Every structure is written in structure tokens, then in C-alpha cells.
Amino acid sequence: MDSQGATLFTIQLGLNLIWTPLFFGLKRPIEATTDIVVLTGVTGYLTYAWSQVDIVAAWCMAPYLGWLGFATYLSAGTGYLNNWDFTDKERETKTSNTGSGMNKDYVNKAPEQK
Q: Are the C-beta atoms of 15 and 42 separated by less than 8 Å?
């Protein structure tokens, strides 16, 4: 049971690490929501496995499971409300300061008045 718990912990850690780049970096809400649903399931099973070894360790996972449930709701809700496509939510804008670089600005933000 100890090696199974370590394996499940490593899997959930990896799933947790790839959610942020999927959601924010690559703007892939379907894949990010799938990732967090699988993460919640793996963490639930990890909690069960740890409960067979140490009940206190299992109860320590309860807040994390609660957070994962809420985060899953937010991920799915954000994807649904944006038609599962984040690619058109930013646009390139020129910087107004001395630099010649480009900044990203959100589409629903009102343009600056000159």
C-alpha cells in the first residue's frame, strides 16, 4: 500500500503541475478541465489508499479535495462561459512608453482614450 500511495501522490503532483500551463499558457480549457477532473479522481483514490494506512493522513487531504472540487467548477465554468475557446480573448497592443515591444490586452477591456 505504501508504494501505491507514493505512485498516486506522484501522479497527482504531475497532473497538478500541468494544469496551469494548459489553462493559462496554452489556453486549452477542455484539456485543463479534463486534467483537473482526473486529478480530483486520483486524489480521491489517494485519500482512500492513505486511509488504509493512516486515517489522519487521509483526513488531511479533505481540504485539498474540497479545493479541487471548487477549482474543477471554476475551470469548467470558465470554459463553458467562453465557449471552450480562449484564443480570441487577448489582442496585441503597442506599448505607450518608450519601449517598442507589444503588450497583450484583454478584448473586453475598453480601449484607452487619447
A: yes
Q: For the chain, give the DSSP string.
A: -HHHHHHHHHHHHHHHHHHHIIIIIS--HHHHHHHHHHHHHHHHHHHHHHHHH-HHHHHHTHHHHHHHHHHHHHHHHHHHHTTT--GGGEEEEE-SSS---EEEEETTSPPPP-
Residue pair 94/81 in contact (Cβ under 8 Å)? The answer is no
Handedness of CA 71, 74, 75, 77 (dihedral sign): positive
- pLDDT single digits (tens) 31-87: 999 999 999 999 999 999 999 999 999 999 999 999 999 999 999 999 999 989 887
Give the C-alpha distances (Å, rounded to integers) separating 18 from 22, 38, 53, 92.
6, 12, 28, 26
> Model-level pTM?
0.78
Q: Cβ distance 87 to 27 under 8 Å?
A: yes
Contact in structure between 45 and 8 (CB atoms under 8 Å): yes
